[in-house]
Amino acid sequence: MSNDTKNVSRRDFVKGAATGLVAGAFAGMGMYSYSPWAYDRMPDVERKQHDFGSCRSVRITNISETSWFNNAHLIGDIHEAGGLLVNQYTLNWAPFGNGKGSAQGAYEEGIGSIKDLLPHDIEKAWEIQKKLSLHPENPGGYSCLIEVEALDGTIHKYLLDTGWSYSWMNDCFKREGIDQMLRDQEIEALFISHEHWDHFWGLPVTVKYDNRIPLYVHDGFYDEGLQYIKDCGYKGDLTIVDKPVTPIIPGMALLKFDVPIINRVFGETSLAFNIKDKGLVLISGCCHQGILKFADFAFANLKYDNDKFYGIYGGLHISPFEDWDPKYDDLVISLGQWGFERIGCNHCTGHLTAKKFIEAGYPVVRGTARFRSASKDYLGNGDKINFGC
């Protein structure tokens, strides 16, 4: 398979998002970011095979994959505000509510109501925002802990994303001991996959416990997102990711994808790991770039053991609202062609997609459906998956 090397500029956002609207508005959001049939006639490319080293194993703890609790409320709020092209900071969702109703939100007004409370009193800040925002009980969040074992046995800990609701994410952090790990500065960095509400807006919860944790964000972040990092009370080193591949430690790299995403968000970063004697493991937040582009890019640009795709974990953005279009079956078939030995999916992959993977005979690691996760067909809140150990 080949990699699409054409970068999508920010100027193409409206065009790309409009295509998503034509594809069927909310019913088409699962296919919004990619079209598998577009890959059929792409030419082969020369593999660069960047050598980023290897590690012994990767262990993932799902802190929260439940980004919201009611699809109808989320979809309804977006629709009422004007649809997929609306700036997310104007939706009047916590923590940026101003009490003026749908589509009347503004970053400055919303953050102004709580800025002096961040990050030390996130509980009070969230209570204030609950009175000013639409459906304040709906937010949850996406976040996972990644533990990488180096070849010498050293364990490196990282966070991918920091969720949405201050209240929900704080409880989830405490449940998995993340709060204490942050206090003890055991976690070496926080990677924000993209600027969306359910992956990024819970930033004060992380900053409350460690306001200097190294932070990585895509260079497509908008002014509001960059200002929010400052307004959260963050005092650490911020890395704006502007290269396709950024090595982190031996066997671990951050991959950058330029792609327009709904509600005026641009770009996503994902992670790749080379497990010694096993092969490549891919980890995503939402995978808005699409599983085909994700795999194609890794194939074309990374060197990994046995030249084999070993595992994948995260949100794969196929049927996030449990809709199903027959074209999604192409994605299920395409994933099988990579030969993954372990598949851990959740979040915007969708329950229907996980069920399809299982029916196709793929090696899906199932979960326990605890802590408000809805299905045992994928890895829910509090579940773990290991690669290489």
From TrEMBL:
GO cellular component: periplasmic space
InterPro entries for this protein: Metallo-beta-lactamase_dom, RibonucZ/Hydroxyglut_hydro, TAT_signal, TAT_signal_bac_arc
Statement: the UniProt record of this protein carries the keyword Transmembrane helix: yes
SUPFAM superfamilies: Metallo-hydrolase/oxidoreductase
Keywords noted in UniProt: Iron, Iron-sulfur, Membrane, Metal-binding, Transmembrane, Transmembrane helix
Domain of life: Bacteria
Transmembrane feature ranges: 12-34
Alphabetized GO MF terms: iron-sulfur cluster binding; metal ion binding; transferase activity
Cell compartment(s), UniProt: Periplasm
Subunit field text: Heterodimer of a large and a small subunit.
UniProt-listed PANTHER family: METALLO-BETA-LACTAMASE SUPERFAMILY PROTEIN, METALLO-BETA-LACTAMASE SUPERFAMILY PROTEIN (AFU_ORTHOLOGUE AFUA_3G07630)
NCBIfam families, per the entry: TAT_signal_seq
Name of the protein this chain belongs to: Twin-arginine translocation signal domain-containing protein
